[in-house]
Design a protein that fits this description.
The complex is a heterodimer of chains A (about 130) and B (about 210). With about 130 residues, chain A is of the alpha/beta class. Helix content of chain A is about 35%, strand content about 20%. In chain B, helix 1 crosses helix 2. About 5% of the residues of chain B have low confidence. Classes of the chains: A alpha/beta (about 130), B alpha/beta (about 210). At the A-B interface, helix 3, strand 6, helix 4 and helix 5 of A face strand 4, helix 5 and helix 6 of B.
Chain lengths: ~130, ~210
């Protein structure tokens, strides 16, 4: 699955070091695009107004608690939470309960995974089990 | 519980861990929105702490952040349990601001509520591993065979977390505890009215049984 840099549109494959360290252009935000859903996603985004896209992006960043000064790279994905329009959320509980990375649908084939939070959660869970 | 005891005995600090755990049992209230989690939390906190946990509303997703009260000490006869009580946001698969608008909210406020409620669902699920005991609060007037209920209870079972199922709102005519019992036969179900205090002593008995 390709990861696309939001700023320069460069594609990276799974596991590329740029996804963990940041793109060569300096950006730290990537879109994770599932090929089979691209067409469907494009139809959704065509109906969104620019201000709605902006609002969705802001909402998603609020939900995953990404601060503007946070330098950690973030990969955007599509699965666990589907934002069809601002204020309309569909949540895949099975995905969330499985403790997969947090994933957010923008409605255009772009995804969010909060890697730092995921690792933190996994670390907490494993340290608790060790107690 | 057996697994937890075994783990507690591991290592030199095993005995200490038992006492530590006994002192700080985390009791989580989980369930779909508007089941009465916060109403039950308020009843417990008012009765044993003399203060409330949080606000309640007929509009779903009133609780959108994790709420905690430490040292909730419940005493019944010679029995005592000391809990860290955790009230969680309602878990849902779909959150639509238009539902809040229909309930009388302005669009901007409704969209903010939807965003916060979505974050609340994620937080509630993240906190699940922290819980020692979970009370699942279901609205006994509603169909228990929902994706939310089945997913929550299935995951609790898979994680080996002790569960007490509560069928709330049994004071209402439409309530059916039998439906909940047949949906989740592996668990005991206590029917209560958190609002009116009906069967609250039965709830305490069941709680002592599950948290022993």
């Amino acid at each position: 699955m390709p990861h696309q840099c939001v700023r320069c549109n460069k594609f990276y494959e799974d596991g590329a070091k740029e996804i963990l360290k940041g793109c060569s252009c300096g950006a730290r935000l990537f879109f994770y695009i599932k090929k089979e859903k691209l067409k469907q996603a494009e139809e959704v985004i065509e109906q969104l107004k620019p201000e709605e896209k902006k609002q969705i992006e802001k909402d998603v960043f609020d939900i995953v608690e990404i601060k503007r000064d946070d330098m950690s790279p973030v990969v955007l994905d599509f699965e666990a939470i589907n934002v069809r329009k601002p204020g309309k959320f569909e949540i895949d509980l099975v995905h969330l309960f499985k403790k997969d990375p947090l994933v957010f649908k923008f409605g255009d084939g772009k995804y969010v995974i909060d890697l730092a939070e995921t690792f933190k959660t996994a670390k907490n869970a494993s340290s608790k089990r060790r107690k | 519980m057996l697994k937890r005891l075994k783990n507690a005995f591991k290592g030199v600090g095993g005995l200490f861990n038992i006492f530590k755990r006994r002192r700080q049992l985390k009791l989580g209230l989980y369930g779909p929105p508007n089941g009465g989690k916060t109403t039950l939390a308020n009843r417990l906190c008012e009765e044993w702490l003399g203060e409330t946990m949080g606000s309640t509303s007929k509009v779903a997703h009133e609780t959108r952040t994790i709420q905690q009260k430490e040292n909730v000490i419940i005493k019944k006869g010679s029995k005592t349990i000391n809990f860290n009580l955790v009230d969680t946001p309602g878990i849902a698969t779909k959150i639509d601001y238009e539902d809040f608008v229909k309930a009388g909210m302005k669009e901007k406020e409704a969209k903010k509520r939807a965003k916060e409620a979505t974050k609340g669902v994620i937080d509630a699920i993240k906190w699940l591993d922290e819980m020692d005991v979970v009370i699942v609060v279901l609205d006994a007037t509603k169909d228990p065979y929902s994706q939310v209920n089945i997913t929550i209870i299935g995951n609790l079972q898979a994680r080996d977390i002790p569960v007490l199922l509560v069928g709330n709102k049994v004071d209402l005519k439409k309530a059916s505890l039998k439906k909940i019992q047949s949906a989740f036969p592996q668990y005991d179900v206590v029917g209560i009215s958190a609002l009116k205090g009906k069967n609250i002593n039965k709830f305490y008995e069941a709680l002592f049984k599950i948290a022993k």
